[in-house]
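User: Second chain of the day. Same drill as before.
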Amino acid sequence: MVRFNISTYTTPLDDEKKYKNKLKLIHRFHKNPTIKESVDNKENIIKVSSSSDNDFIQHFITLRHSTTTLNDDQIKTKKKLDDIINKRLNNNLEIYYKTVIYPSVSVSDIFTIIHNTEHVYSYICMNTTFFICILDRKTNFTSILEFSTNKICDGWSPKFDLDDGFYDQWYKDLREKELKILNTCYQDWLINNNNNIKMLFHSLEYKNMEE
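Assistant: Same format as last time:
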C-alpha cells in the first residue's frame, strides 16, 4: 500500500530564482511527484504528492553484489532473508512479515549476506540495522526490509518535506534515533550541496560504520 508524502511549498511571485530552485529541490527529493501549482496573495503555491517509499529508497546506496562462501550460520540467516523476500516480492498486501535471528549475527555478517542476495538492490546502514531495498528487475517492484542483528522484518519509510525534513507522526517516538540520523544527513547535504556531496546518505555506507 502506497504511503504518500503530501507537501505544500510557497515562493514569492516576484522571485523567479527561488521558484526555480524550489522546483529543482522538489524533483531532487520527491521521486516522480504529482505537482499542482496555483497563485494566491502574491505567492506561488506548489502542492506535491509522492510515495514516501520511493522518496526514501532513491537515496539508498547501490549494492555491488559478490559471491562469497557463507558459513553455516550465515547460510541459515540468508534462508530467513530469502523467505521474507519471496513473500514480499510483488506483494503489496498489508501483511507484516518478521523473523527472529537466534543466535544473533554481526553487522559484518549482515553485509556479507546481502552482498550474496540477488534481489537486494541497495541499502543504508544506521547503527546496527540495515534498511534494504529489494527489487524485482522484471516488474520493477520495490519494497523496504529491515535487517538487524536479531531480526529481519518489513521495513519503515519516513515521510519527507523540504522544509521539515524527515518526519513521522505515527512512529515519531519509536523512530526518534533514526529520524535524527536522517535529518542530520539532510542538513549536511543542504549545507554542503555545492561541495560535490551528491549522495544524501553518503555517511550511511557500511564501510564508514564501526561495529
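The chain has a mean pLDDT of 92.

User: Great, on to the next one.
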